[in-house]
Amino acid sequence: MHQTHCTNYRVHISIRCYLVVKDAIDGVIDNFDIIFHSVFAKYLTKYFNSRLHAMRMELFGFAGWIASALFYALFLIWAYVPDTTLKSVGFTYFPSKHWAVAVPAMIVVSYLFSIVIYKAVNLMSTPGLASYATIIDTHTVRLPEGTTCFEDDTMATPGIGDISVFEVNRHLFSATSDLVQESRRKIQN
């Protein structure tokens, strides 16, 4: 019996079935390989091409990991070993130790600045509170008339949709609202 090692389960089963059938009818059909390859060649070619691409990406990732570890080790050696020791070993040209502190500080500040800029851009692109777009827009999904999560407590999950701002205000700020009555009780006590 032939053994195959494939990472893709379907290909593993296909190749295993091929080998079992080939062993069973060996000699009956002389061109079994030609028939098999004509049927499964497209699938196997696609599988092996994707596997080769994945292996190439794994190799690049590993090489990048090794290169970054080597660069970090060289950076630490340069940053912590005194200049006299580096010159005695033969390294006569290297940047000022000032950059060992300045570059990481600039990276951290740039990261923090990018967070602030990201939030500022999001706030600038959000319509103002007085804008009609905060109430309704092209993406609004209206609930069927008369069904809201406030009124229909029998359903486990209410319908998915946008509740009208008027409905929300009526339940939050009307004199009969449970929230208003509860907050009034807390204030009085």
TrEMBL record:
Membrane topology value: Multi-pass membrane protein
Per the record, its GO cellular-component terms are: endoplasmic reticulum; membrane
Mind listing the UniProt keywords for this protein, alphabetically? Glycosyltransferase, Membrane, Transferase, Transmembrane, Transmembrane helix
> Which compartments is it annotated to reside in?
Membrane
Pfam families cross-referenced by the UniProt entry: PIG-P (PF08510)
The residue ranges crossing the membrane are 59-81, 101-121
Protein's recorded name: N-acetylglucosaminyltransferase complex, subunit PIG-P, required for phosphatidylinositol biosynthesis
The scientific name of the source species is Plasmopara halstedii (Downy mildew of sunflower)
Organism lineage reads as:
Eukaryota, Sar, Stramenopiles, Oomycota, Peronosporomycetes
